[in-house]
Write a structure and sequence with these properties.
Length: 292
C-alpha cells in the first residue's frame, strides 16, 4: 500500500494575491504622489527667487528666498496680512454659524414635522441644487445694492442664515431621518415643544452632520473668490483670496514669489480646520444620505 503526498493548494494561490496587493499599494502610492505634487510645488515655489518661479521647472529651488514670506506678511495695498486674515475668518465664521443654524432648522422641519405640501417643497428645494450660482447672482446683487449692503460683509453672510444651501439641508435631513422618533415622543411627554425637542434632543445627536456642514462651509467660503470680488471693493475689507489677486496686479511678475508665500499662509487655516474635525467628517458622511 503506497501513500501519496499532496502539496497544499493554498500556497500557489497566495502568491498572486500578494502580487495583487503589492500592485494595488503601488498604484495608490503613485496616485498619492500625483495628488500631493501641486502642494509640494506650492511650498517649494513659495521660497524660490523671482527669476526661478517662471524660468525654472525644477521642483527644488536653487536657493531659498525667505524674504517672500516677509513681503507676504506685510500685506498689500497698505493692509496687513493680519487684517486680511481677520476678514476671511469673520466671513467664514459667519457663514458656518448661519449654515449650521438655518440648515439644521430647515432639515428638522422636513425630517420630523408634518405639514402641508412638505413633499413638494422638499422636492423643490432639492431641485435648487442644480441651479447654477451665477443664475441668481445678478438678482441677489440688485437686492443687496438696493438695501445698501454692497461693499459690506452682509451679502456674504446673511444668505447663510436663510437656509439657501440645499445640499446641507439634504445632508442633515438624511441624518435626522435615521434617528428614532421615540426620543421626541419621550421629550413631548415631558412637556417639550418642537423647539425644545430640536435644541435639547435632536441637535446634540446630529453633531456629525453639523460638523460636516461646518467643514464644507468653511472651506468653500474661505476659497470663494468670485462672490467676494463682486461685493467687496475697499482694500481694507479684502480677504486673503482677494489679496492674492491684488498682489499680482500691484507688482506684476516680480510678486510671484510673495504671492505663493501668501497662498501657503491662506492654506494653513483650512488644513488645521480639516485636521481638527476630520473624524467627525467621516462619521457624518457615513451616517448620512451621501453614502448612497
Amino acid at each position: 500500500m503506497t501513500t501519496t503526498t499532496t502539496t497544499p493548494a493554498t500556497a500557489p494561490a497566495r502568491r498572486p494575491l500578494a502580487w495583487r496587493r503589492l500592485a494595488l499599494h503601488a498604484a495608490c502610492l503613485a496616485a498619492l504622489l500625483v495628488m500631493l505634487y501641486p502642494l509640494a510645488w506650492l511650498l517649494a515655489t513659495s521660497v524660490k527667487p523671482a527669476d526661478e518661479v517662471i524660468a525654472s521647472l525644477d521642483l527644488l529651488p536653487g536657493r531659498l528666498e525667505w524674504s517672500n514670506y516677509e513681503t507676504a506678511l506685510e500685506g498689500v495695498n497698505d493692509v496687513s496680512v493680519g487684517r486680511l486674515l481677520g476678514n476671511s475668518l469673520l466671513i467664514a465664521t459667519g457663514a458656518v454659524l448661519g449654515n449650521v443654524l438655518s440648515c439644521s432648522l430647515a432639515a428638522y422641519a422636513f425630517a420630523r414635522l408634518r405639514f402641508r405640501f412638505r413633499g413638494p417643497l422638499f422636492a423643490f428645494m432639492i431641485a435648487t441644487i442644480m441651479l447654477p450660482h451665477h443664475a441668481v447672482l445678478i438678482p441677489q446683487y440688485i437686492i443687496f445694492n438696493q438695501l445698501g449692503m454692497v461693499n459690506t460683509y452682509w451679502p456674504l453672510i446673511l444668505p447663510k442664515f436663510l437656509a439657501t444651501e440645499a445640499f446641507f439641508v439634504f445632508l442633515i435631513v438624511q441624518f435626522m431621518r435615521g434617528l428614532p422618533r421615540e426620543l421626541e415622543e419621550a421629550a413631548r411627554i415631558d412637556g417639550c415643544g418642537p423647539f425644545r425637542s430640536f435644541f435639547l434632543v435632536i441637535l446634540p445627536l446630529t453633531r456629525p452632520a453639523l460638523i460636516t456642514t461646518a467643514i464644507f462651509t468653511f472651506i468653500w467660503t474661505w476659497n470663494d473668490f468670485f462672490t467676494q470680488l463682486i461685493y467687496l471693493f475697499s482694500p481694507e475689507k479684502f480677504t486673503l483670496t482677494l489679496a492674492l489677486r491684488s498682489f499680482v496686479d500691484a507688482s506684476s511678475t516680480s510678486a510671484f514669489g510673495p504671492m505663493f508665500a501668501m497662498s501657503v499662509i491662506a492654506l494653513l487655516p483650512i488644513v488645521l480646520f480639516f485636521l481638527a474635525f476630520q473624524r467627525f467628517l467621516v462619521e457624518g458622511m457615513a451616517n448620512s444620505g451621501i453614502k448612497g
